[in-house]
Amino acid sequence: MNKLNLRAPSFTNLPTVGSVSTIETIEKRPRRLIVLISPEMDCASLTRRLCKLAAETNSDIQLLGLYKDSTQELALHRELIMAAALIREAKVYVESSLETGTDWLAAVKRNYQVGDIIVCISDQSVGIRRKPLSQILESAFKVPVYILTTTKPMQPPSSLRAQVVAWSGLVGIIVGFFILQAQIIGLPDNGSKTVLSILILIPELFSIMFWNSLF
């Protein structure tokens, strides 16, 4: 199994072809990166790395999505459109296709052509035993498989002191305006009391929004 940028795939396992014309057809056909995309993936965040890999291997890009139901289809379709648009901006030729079902091996077989490079995103796994998809594809196609690892942005550790200050300020704003409203209610019963009770909600709302924006 090959990690991205460690070494380029070897194409020594190409099948024996029966004629010179067949060899010429394979050589003239552009090599493609077959990139496997699941509905839960953020493919758009990986487009820069895909474009770099495409340039290094002199390849076009084929985005291959696999979904199980109509809900996943819509989300995956939007993801592929966004990713394809970003790739085209980098002047890389890209196509996309959608397959339905859960069988990645069958989906890849319907799209794979000799010489293509298969690219898995992160640690995709399949089956009850959750076997890595890259291993299954390597075994089935007898070719190396690239793995693009996803990276999640580091979240700053939560500060207990900051949380205490945030909640204390929020409670203070609410209590302060509650006391103010209680004083308004104690005013003589006339039209101004109702108007003031309504108007006091505006600064209370803005105060809460402003305080929340600080944290």
Give me the secondary-structure topology:
Elements (H helix, E strand, L loop, with lengths): L1 E2 L16 H9 L3 E6 L9 H11 L2 E8 L2 H20 L4 E7 L3 H8 L5 E5 L3 E2 L4 E2 H9 L3 E4 L11 H26 L5 H9 L1 H14 L1
Parallel strand pairs: 1-8, 2-3, 2-5, 3-4, 5-8
Antiparallel strand pairs: 6-7
Describe, in plain words, how this protein is organized in 3D.
The protein has 215 residues and is of the alpha/beta class. The protein has two domains: 2-148, 3-Layer(aba) Sandwich (Rossmann fold); 160-214. Helices cover 49% and strands 17% of the residues. Helix 2 (47-57) crosses helix 3 (70-89) and helix 6 packs antiparallel against helix 8 (201-214). The protein is elongated.
Strand content: 15-25%
Residue-averaged pLDDT? 78
CA-atom Rg in angstroms: 29 Å
Here the CATH topology of the largest domain equals: Rossmann fold
Q: Strand-and-helix sequence, N→C? A: EHEHEHEHEEEHEHHH
Q: How many structural domains in the coordinates?
A: 2
Give a brief rundown of this model.
Helices cover about 50% and strands about 15% of the residues. The chain has helices spanning about 20-30, 45-55, 70-90, 105-110, 135-140, 160-185, 190-200, 200-215, and strands at about 1-5, 30-35, 60-65, 95-100, 115-120, 125, 130, 145-150.
